[in-house]
Amino acid sequence: MSTQDILKNASTLASYNVLLQVMFRVFTFLLNAFTLRFVSKELIGVVNVRLTLLYTTLVFLSREAFRRACLSAESGTNRSWRQVINLLWLTVPLGVLWAILLGCVWLWLLEVPDPQTVPHYGPAVVLFALSGVQELLGEPLWVLAQAHMFVQVKVIAESLAMIAKCSVTVVLVVFAPDWGLYIFSAGQLVYTGFLVLCYVVYFIRFLGSKEAAKKTFPLQHIRDLLPSRPLVDWTVARLTWSFFKQSFLKQILTEGERYVMTFLNVLSFGDQGIYDIVNNLGSMVARFIFLPIEESFYIFFAKVLERGRDVESQKKEDVAIAAEVLECLLKLVLVIGLIIAVFGYAYSHLALDLYGGAMLSSGSGPGLLRCYSCYVLLLAANGVTECFVFAAMSQQEVDKYNLVMLALSVSFLLLSYMLTWWAGGVGFILANCLNMALRISHSLLYIHRYFQSSQWKPLRGLKPSPLLLVVLIISAGVTAGSEAVFCCDGGWLFRMVHIGIGGVCLLFVLLAVLLTETQLVQFVKTQLLPRYRKKHT
């Protein structure tokens, strides 16, 4: 597969992933808004913080290292997919082990919620752990689909799974509200079950078909998906071990505030529920735009660049297109992050008031969301820079970076604990900002050194045009003044005026982007928008 084909497929994957994450977040957004009217904030806090943390920790520690290693191009194009599949099946027993260990911690070492307010906590822990193990049963199929750029199967599988989960949750919340945590446990089991089932059905139909033969798919029969000899590729296994050691640290950085809330009890279950709702609302754009781009273009960089080799020892055309793509991605996420930071400040109070009423818009809610709007800018830069760095690093460099991640993890936990006692929920966001800034600094230094001896300077993508900066500053002032005058106690007419002013300012910002960021606009048209990409090709 040529570099251009890899870029095209990665761009297609990113586009579909963005659409999928939009739908994913919209469903979750509407589900939370609906359930807030029927269940207590304490129940929301236990589900969205403690039980979700159990599930994400189990799944992440069981599969993340395997995913990164098996999707890497280090082992070459002649890899044995039978050996890769054997390695991937190890995620299931590893998941069972984590389920037992984490389940014991969640049941016997953590504070148990009041059974009158949050009923059925013990069975819910078991069921959420079971859902994580159930999802791992489809891991070999997921990696096969990602590695061969089967973009539609992921979209269909996760869409159907989310629709099923939301349907079950809504029905049970309305007709069986006394079930408590059983409601959300059932929804979670249905979600992971549908996810695995969709992948199984797809590969049963695909393997041995004419389409598989046309694509020269390396596996022919459904039995090829089961463990067999030869056992494993030890090069990939060693790389997996390196990523596995790193996964502990990355999980702490990713879910750090939830660990602090869960293990140190710095917030009540009710406050955890409110913080998590605000956190999810603030991270919607980050998750449904930045995360799919990071996941998809990690595959692109990992396939185009040779891991652990410097620029001079690689094909110039591959390095050139990787540098160009990295520059455009940095510019893209920077522009999006700046827009969110500017408009998020002036519209946080209104968004929370519309979403959850006075329960969210009063108190610390708007302040939390404003801080998160600024944090999104750091999330944007970190996602793209780290996806390049992890794709280019050698195994030895990954091992060394583990020490950096260890230091960041320890500092993050300490900062979270101290800043939360000082500033409440805002302290979590401030700690995230400081640690994210350190991670970005490390990645930028690596990228600078990587391209230092070449003609390519992809870090120029972090310099927006002067006109765009001026328009953003003016928009920030205008929308902040509009909020002070029109929002949010004067009724719907004043709210609509405030929204209209923001819309006009946003149009001027987008116009500035079209006029000054022509390379970025061309990249988005030809690589991220399917309609334009088809014309281009």
Provide an overview of this structure.
80% of the residues lie in helices and 0% in strands. α7 (151-175) runs antiparallel to α8 and α13 (284-304) runs parallel beside α16. The chain is built from 22 helices and no strands. The two termini are 16 Å apart. The radius of gyration is 23 Å and the shape is globular. It folds into 2 domains: 38-262, no CATH class; 266-462, no CATH class. With 537 residues, it is mainly alpha-helical. It is a multi-pass membrane protein.
Order of SSEs: HHHHHHHHHHHHHHHHHHHHHH
Q: Gap between N and C termini, in Å?
A: 16 Å
Name the overall outline: globular
Beta-sheet strand percentage?
under 5%
The averaged pLDDT comes out at 83
Number of strands: 0
Category by helix and strand content = mainly alpha
Spans of 5+ residues with little confidence (pLDDT < 50)? Answer: 73-78, 531-537
Helix content: over 70%
Count of structural domains: 2
Features:
single chain, 537 residues, mainly alpha, 2 domains, 80% helix
List strands and helices in order, with pairings.
Blueprint: H1 3-35, H2 41-70, H3 81-88, H4 91-109, H5 121-136, H6 139-147, H7 151-175, H8 181-206, H9 210-214, H10 234-254, H11 256-264, H12 269-282, H13 284-304, H14 316-356, H15 358-361, H16 365-392, H17 395-423, H18 425-451, H19 466-486, H20 492-516, H21 518-528, H22 530-536
Helix pairs in contact: 1-7, 1-13, 2-4, 2-5, 2-10, 2-12, 4-5, 5-8, 7-8, 10-17, 11-17, 12-16, 13-14, 13-16, 14-16, 14-19, 14-20, 14-21, 16-18, 17-18, 19-20, 21-22
